[in-house]
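Severity: low
Component: inverse-folding endpoint
Summary: output formatting inconsistent between runs
Steps to reproduce: submit the following structure tokens with default settings.
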């Protein structure tokens, strides 16, 4: 019985170590943030495109959340590329100035979106252009620095 239990426990430990990303590693931290950014951005875009009901307060809250999140992932890119299975191209580390420039552009577009949400009551039409800028900033960085 003890032998069987040991084999099962060893199998479970082996399987749990396969393919997982340490959530506390730089890669795990930034993946979590990027997933939160994607979810928030999709909800905001969904409100503007009619996939979700438009709610001005929820949109404004989401814009603030996205703005806060947009400032976080960059600190989880270590100076030297880690050996983990990352979607980031080596250019992130080889072209740091350009990468940081795109990060600052992302932060600027989310800040602009927040500024527009301060004019109440909100109307979806006034938010489309700033949201398009946020989405374009995301896409620009992905195009240059992410393996798709």
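Observed output (run 2 of 3):
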């Amino acid at each position: 019985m003890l032998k069987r239990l040991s084999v099962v426990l060893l199998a479970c430990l082996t399987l749990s170590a396969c393919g997982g990303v340490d959530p506390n590693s730089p890669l795990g931290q930034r993946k979590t943030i990027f997933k939160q950014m994607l979810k928030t951005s999709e909800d905001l875009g969904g409100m503007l495109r009619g996939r979700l009901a438009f709610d001005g307060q929820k949109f404004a809250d989401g814009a603030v959340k996205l703005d806060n999140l947009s400032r976080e992932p960059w600190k989880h890119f270590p100076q030297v590329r880690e050996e983990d299975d990352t979607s980031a191209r080596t250019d992130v580390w080889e072209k740091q100035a350009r990468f940081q420039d795109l990060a600052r552009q992302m932060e600027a577009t989310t800040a602009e979106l927040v500024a527009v949400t301060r004019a109440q009551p909100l109307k979806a039409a006034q938010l489309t252009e700033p949201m398009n800028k946020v989405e374009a900033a995301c896409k620009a960085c992905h195009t240059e620095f992410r393996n798709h």
